[in-house]
Amino acid sequence: MPNLPQTSHIRLDLRGAVLHLWLDRPELRNALSPQMAREIMATFAAIAEDRSVRVVVLRGAGGTFCAGGDIKSMSAAGEAPPPGVTDEIKENIRRFGVMLAAVNAAPQVVIAAVEGYAMGGGFGLACVADFTIAMADARFAMSEVTIGVVPAAISPFVVQRIGLTTARRLGVSGARISGIEAAAIGIAHITVADATALDAAVRDACDQVLKSAPGAVAATKWLMLRAAGPSPIAELLDDAAECFAEAVRGPEGREGTKAFVEKRKPSWVTQVE
Question: 120 and 69 in contact (C-beta within 8 Å)?
């Protein structure tokens, strides 16, 4: 029995060999907070050497997976701190990147069950799962550019998942795509029609994984990640954190996040003539 952490922004439900990890801020559509990132990292650290936990199912409470980052906190960002003082924005986005790396490299099989929205960071989580199951009417987007910021921490994992060309299209447009298109381009593996079918698909996936030896699964994941090619992930995440902090504090980030909070279009939104 793993010694799971106490949590407030996620909910953990261990059923035999399957750990159900619920993003649990339904009133905010499970927006990712620094606390949520810490709790996810603590959970995966707690089970890293525990082969009794063989599957982790990522889900969102309240009928949506994850609507992205906490934009209200971004809109309140002040000036960059002086040299030598911790930059909370950089630290938080760097921590989120480390969290994605931990989920990506977990020895357990990670299943993401996506309904509702998978935006921004939620899009990233869908891309680091071994098996992503999406409802057909789910909505995926790298939505950061629409509020003047950068899909910083998630970009390395999105490119690894779906390739540069498709990642670029989604990254620079912020376009929303359905669960059906997400499966067509390789973010999701299968789509289902409704919540009942989603539950059934998760059960079927868990049953299939539990037929496999946990040590062999862990070694297979390790080998496949190595086979994908060397990636200076630590350096990439450092650069991503710097880029994100600059964007949030820049004029576009200030305008975009303020517009989101005020429920209006940012100043740069225009129509094709």
Answer: yes
